[in-house]
Amino acid sequence: MKNLSVKLGLLFFLIIFTLELFLFFFLHSSLVESRVEEELFSLQSRGDAHKDTLRTSFEADTIQHVALMEREASTDVIVTNLKGSVLASSLSLDMKKIISSGMKLQNGVVENDWENQPYIVTVSSIPNQGYVFMFQNTNSIQTLIDRLNNHFFITGLITAFLTIVIIILLSIALVRPLNKMKEATIQIKSGDFSISLPDIGNDELGKLAKTINLLASELKHLKQERSQFLANISHELKTPLTYLKGYADIVQRKELPIEEREKYLSIIQEEAKRINTLVEDLFELAKIDQYGFKMKKQPIHLSDFLAHLHHKFEPAFHHQSMRLHVEMPKENIIVNIDSARVEQILYNLLDNSLKYSQTATETTLKIWTNTNDLYISIVDNGSGIQEKDLPHIFKRFYRGTYSNHSSNVGSGLGLSIVKELVNAHNGDITVKSNAKTGTTFTIMLKGAVLNEKDTFSR
């Protein structure tokens, strides 16, 4: 960051110094030009005053009096007739060239080159009588300009010094939070997410600091989730693998009766099935997390979809002396969904109803619409979900307490998959449960219902 502060400082200094140099040059030129114009105006006014005096009395005494007055002043005068002959002068120098050029003017500036000429000169014409030439030595103007230059030089040095100090302070103030952000990113890179950058406002740097804080918080959460996830997977696999190894060792005993051998083989088969289900769920979650699947939405007739679903699940419910009842609107509804994914959602929810409901109970699959939104609810008469478990049931590997159905407890991933798939459909899922009345899952798929015009256009 030192290099950055130096680069920023130099860049700011060059920009500001160039701007200040331009402004100083412009101001200096303006002041000098203004000052010279003031001197010329003052000289012209003095010549006009003499002209007014001589216009009324263009006599030798008056002319000599004018010349005498200027000998005592800082300016000089030359009075000539119409032909350019000098009648009176406060100068000892021959100014024929100046007089000759001034006779072409009625009134105005004859010479204003104060940098190279010894005098600035103005002329005032006396109608039908002569001319009044006023002279001012340029040494006084140059002295004034030299003082002005000294003032500008000193002011420029002070301004440059203050500019450097201000730029250094600004560079430090700008780079300091960047240094802290760099240190924070190094911490994040090393795996330490316990950072907290200070709030420095709502500008770009402030927003960047807030973003880094949010990133650290998210990464910390992800790290904890990953650790928990790995711990849960290890735990979930360890138990069935222990059973598999233990019962496989028992089955290998030669003296083991056939009945017990078949019993242990059945347990091994169940545990292998449990591991297979867990692995399949993990693959499904991995695809969802890595966006490895694409939603293949297409318009379908909802009645056909539900008929197929009922035909597929009814035997499983019948086998357990349970009933699956479907309620849906009578009119033909066309929905835009990924039918395979929605079937997967309903499979998980209906499978839970099978696991946690008593025999001779009924599960209702109810469908209704609200404008373009599709609603699906699954209502069972099972044992329900305990109130303390409700806020957590969609978390991965979370499983509530099911004392009456411990043998049917799944991997704890099914509802997590359901939640992810509903979200992928731009939908939402809610749950209500009571130990007496059972559980109700309600799914809302936003914008899934199509009208005939939409269907035709597709």
From TrEMBL:
GO terms for molecular function: kinase activity. It is an enzyme of class 2 (transferase). Residues 172-224 form the HAMP domain. It holds the Pfam family HATPase_c. The chain crosses the membrane at residues 152-175. Its main location: membrane. InterPro entries: BphY/WalK/GraS-like (IPR050351), HAMP_dom (IPR003660), HATPase_C_sf (IPR036890), HATPase_dom (IPR003594), His_kinase_dom (IPR005467), HisK_dim/P_dom (IPR003661), HisK_dim/P_sf (IPR036097), Sig_transdc_His_kin-like_C (IPR004358). It catalyses: ATP + protein L-histidine = ADP + protein N-phospho-L-histidine. Residues 232-449 form the Histidine kinase domain. It is a multi-pass membrane protein. It is found in: Cell membrane. It comes from the Bacteria. PROSITE patterns: HAMP, HIS_KIN. Its EC number is 2.7.13.3. Signal peptide: none annotated. Residues 205-232 form a coiled coil. Keywords: ATP-binding, Cell membrane, Coiled coil, Kinase, Membrane, Nucleotide-binding, Phosphoprotein, Transferase, Transmembrane, Transmembrane helix, Two-component regulatory system. Gene3D superfamilies: 1.10.287.130, 6.10.340.10, Histidine kinase-like ATPase, C-terminal domain. PANTHER family: PHOSPHATE REGULON SENSOR PROTEIN PHOR (PTHR45453:SF1). This is histidine kinase. It comes from Cytobacillus stercorigallinarum.
